[in-house]
Write a structure and sequence with these properties.
- Helix content is 47%, strand content 22%.
- The protein has one domain: 3-Layer(aba) Sandwich (Rossmann fold), CATH 3.40.50.
- It contains eight helices and seven strands.
- A seven-stranded mixed sheet has the order 3-2-1-4-5-7-6, sandwiched between helices.
- Helix 1 crosses helix 6.
- With 245 residues, it is an alpha/beta fold.
- Bound molecules: S-adenosylmethionine.
Length: 245
């Protein structure tokens, strides 16, 4: 494991206890709506890989909606996953389900420990902008997805409206680092999050990365004035045609 990966893992380990509260509080719960919308755009499938599962909020939305029967989640922060595991074990009995619906695995999105075409669907919420190599992460998502399967990605984006941009810049450059530092007591984590959001690609640019990774029919839907975006793309259907020699 390189220093860079250890760095991301330990950064999220440090903010894990306050991550959910800050997310929901600072976004006035809009983040929950974004995750529900992301799930609404997925087809119902059996087994989903949730990349950068964190504290499992997207996985919970998938299980609640019935869009996924089983989820495997990977992440580089054990602490984020520990909290996610706790939330899942509280949730499942209330849904009349036993354990075994969700597996958490400490693994890097850029070198996944799964065989080709292992999953019916792949999701990732607010994970991609943390990858040191976005293209390697997207190529891995493509590789582990079955043919005809859909990748569904939720990520922050940069609004096009100038007025909204001002509010966005103010929020990510000042409000988030200040409140994040105060609540999490971590001096650097929320400054990093601010930088990671503003330096990341979005819209057509992100679609190009999906296409380069091999995906087809890539498209996006913006949310809340373009503050966040959902990206959807497919892995080519394998028609099982006999090979010609
Ligand atoms: C902002 S959180 C998002 C968590 C969750 N998906 C959500 O919707 O709240 C980003 C997560 O990505 C994880 N992460 C970052 N880089 C990763 C990588 N290369 N492989 C796996 N997980 C990674 C972090 O550890 C962190 O838990």
């Amino acid at each position: 494991m390189t220093d860079e990966k250890q760095h991301i893992g330990s950064l999220f380990d440090r903010i894990a206890p306050t991550y959910d509260g800050l997310n929901h509080g600072l976004s006035l719960n809009i983040d929950r709506r974004w995750r529900r919308k992301t799930v609404a755009l997925m087809p119902p499938v059996e087994h989903v890989l949730d990349v950068a599962i964190g504290t499992a909020d997207l996985t919970i939305a998938m299980l609640r909606s019935g869009k996924a029967q089983r989820v495997t989640g990977i992440d580089l922060s054990r602490e984020m996953m520990r909290i996610g595991e706790e939330k899942i074990s509280n949730l499942l009995p209330s849904m009349g389900r036993q354990g075994g619906a969700v597996d958490f695995l400490y693994a890097n999105a850029q070198e996944m420990p799964f065989g080709d075409a292992s999953f019916d669907g792949v999701t990732c919420a607010f994970g991609c902008r943390n990858f040191s190599d976005l293209d390697a992460g997207l190529r891995e998502m493509y590789r582990v997805l079955r043919s005809g399967g859909q990748v569904t990605i939720l990520e922050f984006s940069y609004p096009s409206n100038k007025l909204i941009r001002c509010g966005y810049d103010l929020y990510f450059s000042h409000v988030l680092p200040f409140v994040g530092r105060l609540v999490s007591r971590d001096k650097t984590a929320y400054t990093y999050l601010n930088k990671s959001v503003k330096s990341f690609c979005w819209g057509e640019d992100f679609l190009r990365h999906l296409t380069q990774a091999g995906f087809q029919d890539a498209r996006f839907e913006t949310l809340t004035f373009g503050i966040a975006t959902i990206y959807i793309a497919k892995k080519k259907e394998d028609l099982g045609l006999p090979r010609t020699t």
